[in-house]
Each structure stands twice: as structure tokens, then as C-alpha cells.
Amino acid sequence: MAAPPAVSVMGMKKAIVTMAGAALLVAGCGGGGEATSAVESPSEAPASPGAQSPGAQSSGAQSSGAQSPGAQGRDVPEALRFKGETLAGEQFDGAALAGRPAVFWFWAPWCSKCRSEGPNVAKAAEKYGDEVSFVGIGGLEKDKGRLRDFVSRTGTGNLTHLDDRTGRLYSHFKVTSQSSFLFMAPDGKTSKDSGPLDEDELSRHVDELLG
């Protein structure tokens, strides 16, 4: 008569084990997604406050009028938050101009006004030397060879010239015609004028930048 209770106890143990296994299986299916999402790999970990993704940095997305640290700790005005490429194929970062006066000259290779004022721009750039940064922005043309030919013909090889065949920089600076000039003071304030400008007119504008 002792055998039946033993069988009953064994049966109960098997039932308990079976129920425990079933409970673990249910927990694994139902909670698996939550457990996985709680453990993140380093590549999926959320960025710390203030960190930016590479895309956000390259697009320069910041609040309007805000400034960010530039070269040597200077603040970078909104207008200088751009990157481009020189006609020589080198990368150019507008932030490098922060804290110093700069003259942007917007030209196109087929523009007769631009060609006529080119020598004056070259003289002004030579006159002010390292005091003022002169940057040419050649656009409204698909042929890079014509941009280079313009620089050679106008004798403006002493300037840094940016390749703007896409028109991206024209849009960034809100320039709609050529020739055009944008004069930027060290504090980031800007003024514009349309060409052609002779050597005296250019000097007047630059002297105002220098105070």
C-alpha cells in the first residue's frame, strides 16, 4: 500500500518541473524583446547630451543666430558655418576665417563685370596682405576648366577661390547676382555691394572693416 503514494509524489514532482519550465518559456518569449532593448551595444547607445551625429555636424544645423567655437576658440558667425572646396581641390572650412575681416567676391567666368574688376580685386588683396582674407567664389558655371581659366586671365591667383558650380555657396550667402561682394567684420557683421568696384571703392569698404 506504500507504492501508490510514492508514484503520486513522483507525479507531482514531474508536474511541478513541467509547470516551471513552461513558465520560463513564456517569460522568455514574452519578455525577450524588453530584455534585449534594455541591453544596448556601444554603437546603439544614446548620445550624451550635447553630442551631435556626424550628419548634424556636417549640415551645420544650429539655432538661428547661435555661435559655435571656431578656430583657436573663436566664435563662428552663422555666415561662416560652411565647408567647400578650392579650385585646387583642397577642403576649405569657413570657420577658419572667424575673428578676422574677410571679403567674399562672387563671380562667374562669363561675367564681363567680373573680368573687368578682377585686377582691382587682386591689387586690393595684395595691398591688405594678411590683414584681410580675400576669398573668391566662382559659380554659375558647370565647367571647372572655365573657372580656372578665369582666375588665370584676371590675375587673381593670389586669392583663395572656391568651386561653387553647384551654387550652394551663392545660396548660403543669399547672393543672387554677380559680380557681388560681401564684406565681413571680425565680429561677424556683414555688408554687401554690387560690382564692378574699382580699387578705391574696394579700399573704402575694406578700411571700414578695419575700423
UniProtKB/TrEMBL annotation:
<keyword id="KW-0732">Signal</keyword>
<dbReference type="InterPro" id="IPR000866">
    <property type="entry name" value="AhpC/TSA"/>
</dbReference>
<protein>
    <recommendedName>
        <fullName>Thioredoxin domain-containing protein</fullName>
    </recommendedName>
</protein>
<dbReference type="InterPro" id="IPR013766">
    <property type="entry name" value="Thioredoxin_domain"/>
</dbReference>
<dbReference type="InterPro" id="IPR050553">
    <property type="entry name" value="Thioredoxin_ResA/DsbE_sf"/>
</dbReference>
<feature type="signal peptide">
    <location>
        <begin position="1"/>
        <end position="22"/>
    </location>
</feature>
<dbReference type="Pfam" id="PF00578">
    <property type="entry name" value="AhpC-TSA"/>
</dbReference>
<feature type="compositionally biased region" description="Low complexity">
    <location>
        <begin position="35"/>
        <end position="73"/>
    </location>
</feature>
<feature type="compositionally biased region" description="Basic and acidic residues">
    <location>
        <begin position="202"/>
        <end position="211"/>
    </location>
</feature>
<feature type="domain" description="Thioredoxin">
    <location>
        <begin position="57"/>
        <end position="211"/>
    </location>
</feature>
<feature type="region of interest" description="Disordered">
    <location>
        <begin position="186"/>
        <end position="211"/>
    </location>
</feature>
<feature type="region of interest" description="Disordered">
    <location>
        <begin position="33"/>
        <end position="74"/>
    </location>
</feature>
<dbReference type="InterPro" id="IPR036249">
    <property type="entry name" value="Thioredoxin-like_sf"/>
</dbReference>
